[in-house]
Amino acid sequence: MSAYLLRRVLYAIPILIGVNLLTFVLFFVVNSPDDMARMHLGVKRVTPAAIEEWKRERGYDRPLLYNERGEGLARFTDTIFFQKSLALFRFDFGTSDSGRDIGYDISQRMWPSLAIAVPTLLVGLALNVTLALTLVFFRATYVDFWGLVGLVALMSISGLFYIIGGQYLVGKLLHLVPISGYDTGLAAAKFLILPVVVGVVSGIGSGGRWYRTLFLEEVGKDYVRTARAKGLGEARVMFGHVFRNALIPILTGVVVILPLLFMGSLIVESFFGIPGLGSYTIDAIQRQDFAIVRAMVFLGSVLYILGLILTDISYTLVDPRVRLE
Prior knowledge:
The structure is a single chain. The chain is mainly alpha-helical and 325 residues long. It has 2 domains: 2-90, no CATH class; 110-324, MetI-like (MetI-like fold). Helices cover 73% and strands 0% of the residues. The chain has helices at 2-30, 33-41, 48-58, 74-77, 80-85, 102-137, 142-155, 159-173, 189-219, 222-229, 234-245, 247-257, 266-272, 277-287, 290-318, 320-324. It is globular and about 80 Å long.
């Protein structure tokens, strides 16, 4: 198993290097530091002196890949690629174009994002799996038919409708929880209830239907017919056999998104005023703060690769065939 996981980690290294190179090309070759300065300064007639001053303050005045004026290793280290791109591998995100420490901002903003994403994932997973198993248990009946109709209807509604409708119903009419905002400690719970509920409800349609498809595929297999022939009840067959054998595709969908929970939700955090990483990225795009956007793109790629490795680990735990290979 150790060799199996080591191969997966080694496969991830060239992928991460490729993502880093692509990020560098997009931010510093296609969109040159001069272009970044002009967009950030936000005026039509920008003087060359103002551009050079903006680049100097943020370390963009160095050569891209090779510094002819440097000596020794400085020819490679005193470059934008080394200072801005390779430093990301040390998780040194540097400072934003506005002068803030990006690493500190990430460490502060990741907790609100996790406070929303983790309960949404756990509650949504439990609800979707239970609903899907119930529909498969009553398959080919009116319960299954109308349940599927309801899931398709929920899938057809835009996520923005759930956000706006939830804010209007729960916040405006019923006055149960605040519409937006955030607080620290336990006081933050009242601001998280509505985003979590909206996240769970908006995912019932697609999640319930997907899990129902997985369980229906398992129901028709030979081991299920064998279990029934042995006299096992339908409930035990569903929850003891079908659910257990459908764990691999379930883990594929769940484990991959676990690291991405760290990144937060762009839409939910923006609408509910949650100071998480999702709203942090949106604000950086609006301010044209390329240092933050570049750091978040790289961090997202690292977390996604980590999710794939966690998926492989989960396979080895639930499927003996993977361990044998």
